[in-house]
Every structure is written in structure tokens, then in C-alpha cells.
Amino acid sequence: MDQSLLEKIIKLDENDELNIIRILILIDKMAGRNHKQTIDGINKLVKLDFLLRYPVALERALAQLKEEKDIPKIDIQEYERESVEANLMYFNYGPWDSRYRRFLTILEAKGLIAYTISGKTVKVSITHTGHKIVEGISEFSEFNPYVVRSGLIKRHFGSFSSKKLINFFYDVFPEMVTMAQGEEIKL
Question: Per the domain annotation, does 187 fall within a domain?
């Protein structure tokens, strides 16, 4: 990979708008056809977004499920296999990006998502405005991989509880078991 391509990939990851769009598409897909379903817990959302953000991780997770049922193969571009993103750190049972709360706050402030609290669980949902924005974004071919992969994530991991997802991550990504908190995740 030449240096200019690597620099472009790093700059893309530093672009808050791209991260926010990816997260919004995921939240919208997780809301289902009626746009009413919630993601129960920010940690669950982060783990689902980890699969979306890193298609190699999604491919590995789907391969683990393949033993159980017929799972489709995902289309991963070569640059996605070779990209180096250094912002996800291991934190309390899985991946975490220090900018995550900021992304969610921006989405909420713009009226694109909403939060409700049930006990100790923060439930994240899409708003009507957020869904309309995703409909518009989905028309751009550049975002099609996020839309397609978010659908796969919803279909295969959406029903997982946060705890089941944590245990699944430990099975699929055993390297996370021995990682220290704050250590960079490398797949």
C-alpha cells in the first residue's frame, strides 16, 4: 500500500461525519422495518458498530456462525483488508472508541436518534428525521457497503443480548481475552 493511500484512509477515519453516518445507518437498520426497535445498551451498539467498521471482523464473526446456519459471504474490498485504523481500543469487554459518546451526542442533538433509559440500560432508537436522512444517504453508492453490512448485522446479531455478544466476541476474537484495557485492537 503506498503512503498516499494510507494517509487517505487515516484521514477518513478522523472524519467525524463519516463515523456519524456509519453509526446512523446501523441504528436505522437495527430499528427494523417499523423503525421502532431499539438497541439495548450503548456497549451493544459499540460492538455491533465494531463489526460494521471492520468488515474483516464481520467476516470472521459470520464465519463463526456459518457452522450453525447458511451465512452469506460478504464482499470486502482489498483496501478494507489492508486498512490500518488505530482508534479502537480494548475497553471493558470489547472495542471502544474514545469519540463514541461525542458521536451519539451529536446524533441526538440533531434529532436523528433518541435515548430512553430502562433501569440501567440506555436504549438507542432512530427518529423519523434520522430514518429520512438514512433513506437519502442510502441512495449514494459509496454508503452501500454500510447499508448491506448493517442489514447482515441486524439479521445475524441483532437478537443477541449484550452479554451474549460479549461472550461471542471472546469466542471469535480470543486475542481480546488477554488484552489490557486501553490496548489497541489489531485483527
Answer: no
